[in-house]
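Quick board copy: two proteins, each given as sequence then tokens.
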Amino acid sequence: MFAAFAPVTSWWQFVVVVSLATSLDRGSAAVRSGLIASSEHGADRIRARAYLRSMTNIAMAVGAVLAALALHVDTQRAYTVVLLANGASCLLAALLLCSYPHVRAVAAREGAPMTLVFRDRPFLVMTALMAAMAVQYSILDIGVPLWLTHTDLGAARHGCPCCS
């Protein structure tokens, strides 16, 4: 999806692509959880989640370094290369997931009402804290590009295809 940012040259195109990317990204957590739940059990499930979180953090750090290099070079070509490289990495991940065996859907269990979760205060507190901490991703994905369009940084005024 990030490769879709490469041809963006106007504000409205940026808004459309960001909206689509954000919508797809928000759905990825449910898919990831289902993938882990279907392939790991017990302590292995926790280990798998920790491993995936670590890999995500490493990938974010590498991506931030590459983005910083593109900002340093400050050419449209550098920005386009970073966007296309990110898109290629997502495509590679999708191809790897195609080899994962199909898992059948599990029927919902009869039992307690769905509103029962709202009685579990520790769970609600943790959910609120996790939501607050998840804002960091939105800041990197949306906040920083918007901030760049309103500063005197060279990238925002010269080479960035989304900000020109």
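And the next:
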Amino acid sequence: MTPAIYNSLFRKFLCNGVHEEPRSLEALRAIHQAKLSPEDLRNAAANMLLYSGLQTDRLWGFKLPEALLLIPQLHDAFPTARYVFMHRHPLAGCLGRSHQTAELDNPIGQMLLPIAYRRQNRSPLQALEDSQPERIAYSIVHQDETALADRQDLLDPRRSLSILFEDMLLDPENETQKLSSWLATRVQASRLTQVVDLRRATTFSTAAKSEQARKANTILHTLYTKLPYDPNWDPTELQKATRSYISRPNNEFSPSNSPLQVLARGY
């Protein structure tokens, strides 16, 4: 599904004129004609299942962070799909390795990062001066706010589930059971309890108390009004946490009840 998702991103944003680079009429016509349809996405899913050896009547899914920007297109292609949103503390997402959507050395970043800056009324040229955590912050805000709005507008609440990355790390067995209950399926085997490494999740290339982190957290401020995270929480403290990363009660994210994963039967 990865090539289909990336192709859909190019068609969506270039065709809709979000990218401000001048284009000839011939180029725009070629892009429009190549735009992926719901049938194209379903065919991509069929090919994925064919090569994986899975039957189309079984529960299947795929995970790709950039799919957050394509919920309307995915909803058209897979109207009965269910969606799992795994959220992570926004600042933690800015302090680790970079994302391709936050770098200008690849086609995806060259297209999406300027859009992310413009959404915050900033010149895309500022990305050339900003630090890596700041660029990632703009990218995260763009993707998460787009997904949260599309989710509210398009998806039946019963067909989407939110999970916190930190909850999954701290209690993988319980979180896996909750996910399986929501899917009405049985977990046949899970190695999460063996492979979860809290040290890896709390080791960052940028210090949480650095000036770069402070600037990135300022950019993220609008997300803290939409997600139940404490903006003052230090992501390196996860190993000691008792859900201290939560700033307020929120039933949707409570234990009794993040990249986007799309789950469907058939296509």
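Board note added afterward: The longest strand covers residues 82-87.
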